[in-house]
Amino acid sequence: xxxxxxxxxxxxxxxxxxxxxxxxxxxxxxxxxxxxxxxxxxxxxxxxxxxxxxxxxxxxxxxxxxxxxxxxxxxxxxxxxxxxxxxxxxxxxxxxxxxxxxxxxxxxxxxxxxxxxxxxxxxxxxxxxxxxxxxxxxxxxxxxxxxxxxxxxxxxxxxxxxxxxxxxxxxxxxxxxxxxxxxxxxxxxxxxxxxxxxxxxxxxxxxxxxxxxxxxxxxxxxxxxx
Length: 226
Ligand code: SF4
Prior knowledge:
It is a single chain. The protein has 226 residues and is mainly α. The protein folds into 2 domains: 4-28 and 149-216, Endonuclease Iii, domain 2; 42-132, Endonuclease III, domain 1, CATH 1.10.340. The protein contains 12 helices and no strands. The mean pLDDT is 95. The structure holds iron/sulfur cluster. Residues 158, 161-162, 200-201, 206-208, 211, 213-214, 217, 219, 222, 225 line the site of iron/sulfur cluster.
């Protein structure tokens, strides 16, 4: 078991890394779901736009969400739409046909079982078909403002490269980060690392020379960099 001193040192290093990554990211655009959540903190919008965002570019997610919310801004309205109408609204999001079916079912269940209010716990959200851990943690954190760490591919890759955690799966990363990150950093960690992972610590050949966090990074598994 890690000693309290080692844990404190890791947390302090994580704080410094977060500050350095923020400097690197600067004023770059936030991920689409964060932008939607900031415009209107509505768990329903966070849930729907996150489902749309899976395997879909940010620009496409923004536009598809905007079109869908223009015709269905509540679970009742979305549940009443035909699958074909939802498909048309969210096209060309990846797997738009599967997502359209899932979104309709999710909306109907929220309406029938939860009185139209999106549940606010990860476990309840995970019981919906089409809702995975990434979506559930984003709804809880960005939609409800509750402390949770959303781990997507960028968060998993960057946290491991830097040496903040040593894990094999996103779920392991989520629980390891809970021990390392100060609680006040949990909600914002995802949007910071998504921007940082898209622009600086890219999957192939990260831009280490432009990275403010390079002195804090172990560069684990990095073979080629710029
Ligand atoms: S791998 Fe390079 S770009 Fe990524 S965090 Fe480390 S130093 Fe920065």
